[in-house]
Amino acid sequence: MSATTLDQSLPLPRMGLTALVWAVIGTLTALIVAGLALPLHAPIGAMYWDSFLYLDAANRIGQGQVPNVNFFTPVGPLEYYLSTWTLNLFSNAQPMYAASWSIAFVTIPLMALVLWDIARRAPLVALAVAVPFALYTLLPFNTTEYYNFPGSDGFGIYNRHASQLVYVLAAALLFVRRQWLLAALIAALMLALFLVKVTGFVVAGLLCVVALAAGRVHVLSAIASAVVFAATLAGLELATGMISAYLADIAALFRINETSMAHRLVQGASRTGGTVIFAGLTCLVLLFAMPVRALPDQPRWRAAFDHPVIWIGAAVAGGIFFESQNTGSQEMIALWPVIVHALARMLSEPGAHAAKAGVALLAGCTVLPPLVQTIQHAARANLAMVRQIAPDHANWGRAGRITVRPRMLERFERMRAHYIAWPEATRALAERRELPAYVLYSEHDFQVGLMHDADEVAGELARLEAEGLSYRTIMTLDFANPFAFMLDKSAPRHIAIGADPYRAVPEPDAAVYEAVADTDIVLEPLCPYRDNSRELRAIYAPALTGHVKVTLTDCYAAYVRPAIAAQLTR
Asked: In angstroms, rounded to a whole number, what is the distance separating the alpha carbons of residues 470 and 165?
């Protein structure tokens, strides 16, 4: 009932397979390093502005701010440190790619340890685990496309990171046999998951409970992992106060997003419906084809917990829960090592060739479609760049290395002219809590316009500064604030990063109001004027009573402190 069964059933040269495993990991590493070192462009995609959060975080961390302690975050602090370190290490890196690939500095070394333990016994299994991991790590795309036109996925980055970490953990729990190594891997992966996204940590905890019940993790290994995990968090808390602040942010997010869990679970299941259905069918065949068999001196209940049906069920249940809290991700990819384990176990069964063929077919239907879709998504987006152009910009630097379809650029210019000519139209929509388009934030022309208008206002502020304007802090009444990064200024402390007023902005306290009141320039986007900006203006209104509203460009107004208001004239 070990992973070696798959290798034994398909006799292939072991040395060649082992070399191929390391070739996959080596090629993955080389491609990511090359991608970060080269001045790549990214095809702009739906909700691309999510990638601006990592620019905001890099600026804040560079200014000495600590995630969760000095600013509210929707996810864990490790996300922002990894992306910031990657941006600093690779001066040419396109920021969206830097953010997406930053997790590889954690996952690749840990997966290499997992594969080292597997390959000595079952190199074919190691290869079956390594290839999907490499593809999901290399391709910074979600498994589901959320817009008709191809583009890069600048959103869902931290969800993909959590999914990749859970993938490595599932592989470790199922295939690593050295208990000291398994204990170290569990501690490292659970720590990373906790500090990346807590819902991924919960899913990982479920898998760890199954592994403990199944006897794959010894009690002493579990205790050692827990001690290392707790000691590391205690050290971080004593050094920075980050952990208690992070837990407070999680509690605040939970209060803001209190909705029916049943509704969210249905949403998560529907978004992964194909995978869930075929995983269920795989379990159904396994239930009849693979009876529970206990090893000598193994309690039957422990053997029951180690049955592939339990593992698949835990991975599916965890995946549904995780996706119920997400917008975009690499859904259910942790099923890959679980399915490989199920196939290896099924092949060890005597006879039952029809059942084995059925399990293999259903297993393929479970895990292959999301991988194929991700490859298709990536190929479509990158091939489309052949007919795209790179818009001009003066202030974005490497963050402005994007491409867009000429038709989308034309649409942006026409829509911008409309927004400027008829500002009352979009303002009336915002007052009704509607957007000019139902999927406005997915529209490529909107994302291009967002970058163009930000570049324009940054240029205007740079011109005014050259003429004597002096200011320190800048924020925006919008979801993402790239301006401090673009202009080498400071973002105010205590302000949420990723300011979705309906999901990720807690009710301000005195410290928040004081920080906003002390902010020199608070920008307000106008092209188009949107409901989220209107709502953010209402949230921070008590702190803006002393600011003076001025017009900076056709598409940006600003609330500025009176001492510098006279300097902000066109």
From this structure: 45
